[in-house]
Amino acid sequence: MKLILLGAPGAGKGTVAKLLTGLDGSVQISTGDILRAAVAAGTPLGKQIESLMKSGDLVSDDLIMGIMEQRLQQADCEQGFLLDGFPRTIPQAEALKKLLEKLDIKLDMVVNFNLEREVILDRLTTRRTCSNADCQAIYNVKSNPPKQEGVCDKCNSPVIQRDDETTEAISHRLETYNEKTAPLIGFYENEGLLLNVDAAGPSEVVLTAIKEKLAEAS
Length: 218
Ligand code: AMP
What we know:
This protein has a 5-stranded parallel sheet, sandwiched between helices. It has a 3-stranded antiparallel sheet with strand order 6-5-7. The protein has 9 helices and 8 strands. By secondary structure, it is of the alpha/beta class. β5 and β6 (about 140) form a beta hairpin. It has a single domain (about 1-25, about 80-215), classed as P-loop containing nucleotide triphosphate hydrolases (Rossmann fold, 3-Layer(aba) Sandwich), CATH 3.40.50.300. The termini are close together. The site of adenosine monophosphate (AMP) has 18 residues, from α2 and α3. Adenosine monophosphate binds near residues 9, 52, 64, 92 and 164.
């Protein structure tokens, strides 16, 4: 599978991407995870983007395209990939189109996760993430808490609330999404690649809906 997962922060792209990877060995590529790992490791890139990410602003298109041009050429992408959180602006989508043409890669579909703002706000303020940059497992204090409070089920690292998941940062990220990312829905509709899914249900239900729509489309 070669998919773009499109949708507001908190729409469930990351959780569903993890389930999709189990289907055919496609790899999840989350630009947010890559950038958070750089911040956690204190690399020059991490230091450059730390405050920007904390406030919920986007990292520059050039920087993201540099990362993705390399990432998409790594061997594990040959089996397929699920782009989670990328592209996020029209210039990124245009640059990705050119990059995929250059690499002779054809996208199967762009899955758009539809979810109401109120549900998104509730999900993000109750979301918790594993602090281990190599794990970054996602939990929810209401619907999917870790077995032991504050401890990751997978790697035993502390489970925390992300800096960019304060109410203020979340509002800013949603504004940024509406302004910069939502126009991608029209972009991919014009490309004939858009597949809308209702993202309100549990992730397994969303996964089934995606599988059915992919089967219908193939
Ligand atoms: P996410 O985990 O996908 O919500 O990403 C967290 C943060 O990483 C965003 O709020 C941005 O600061 C940055 N980021 C992730 N992906 C991108 C992207 N494609 N373009 C620009 N900034 C990004």
